[in-house]
Amino acid sequence: MNWFEVEKKFFLPVFKRFPVVLVRGEGAWVWDDQGKRYLDFIGGWAVNSLGHCHPAVAEALSQQARKLIHTSNQVYTIPQLELAQLLVKHSCLDKAFFCNSGAEANEAAVKLARKYGKLKLGGAFEVISALNSFHGRTLAMVAA
What does the alpha-carbon distance between residue 93 and residue 68 come to, in Å, rounded to a whole number? Predict the structure, then answer.
């Protein structure tokens, strides 16, 4: 099957992909569907800092998936409460806010900065973003 033709038929063309179909990874390496090995310089957009399929990460994910996979932030979970305590203890901040994605985290940062500007700086609402950088695919982040 030609996966590139499948993409043309079923995907919206919102960004250009590299012409490679990845099927597995280990550490800093990934392999395509033809068996060719690549050094992964992207790292899942920098979220795979321990590499692909790290044994400790895979085991932790497996253990958690056997207990509870995902909930809304509308309910409490003990790991989330413990992580909030740990983050506050080891930072200069007094609260934690958890997000589901980088775009959501960036949106929250913009909202918090604007609220701070309104309350503490007499209405400063400007936000600075890096030109040609990726901040997420939400409307606010694309427009930033």
Answer: 29
Contacts of 113 (CB under 8 A, 6+ apart): 127
pLDDT single digits (tens) 38-62:
999 988 777 888 999 999 999 999 9
Q: Which domains are assigned to the chain? A: 1-69 (3.90.1150.10), 72-98 (no CATH), 100-144 (no CATH)
Q: CA-CA distance, 119 to 15, in Å (whole number)? A: 39
Contacts 24+ apart (CB under 8 A), 99-102: 101/136, 102/45, 102/135, 102/136
- For the segment 78-104, the average pLDDT, to the nearest whole number, is 94
Q: Is the pTM of this model over 0.85?
A: no
CA distance 135 to 144: 8
